[in-house]
Amino acid sequence: MVIVTVHIVEWFQTHNFAIIKSNIMESKIATAEGGTIAMTKQVRAFGTAAPAGQLKQLNIQRRKPILHDVEIEILFCGVCHSDLHTARNEWHGTIYPCVPGHEIVGKIVNAGSHVKKFKVGDFAAVGCMVDSCRECEYCKEGLEQYCEEGMIGTYNSTDPHLGIQTYGGYSESVVVDEVFVLKVPENLDLASTAPLLCAGITTYSPLRHWNIGPGKRVGIVGIGGLGHMGVKLAKAMGAEVIVFTTSPSKIEDAKRLGADHVVLSKDKDQMQRYSGRLHFVLDAVSAEHDINAYLKLLKVDGTLALVGAPEHPLPVAAFSLIPKRRSFAGSMIGGIAETQEMLDFCGKHNIVADIEMINIQQINEAYERLLKGDVKYRFVIDMASLKK
Ligand code: NAP
Ligand code: ZN
Ligand code: ZN
Question: Average pLDDT, stretch 152-156?
Answer without folding.
Answer: 98
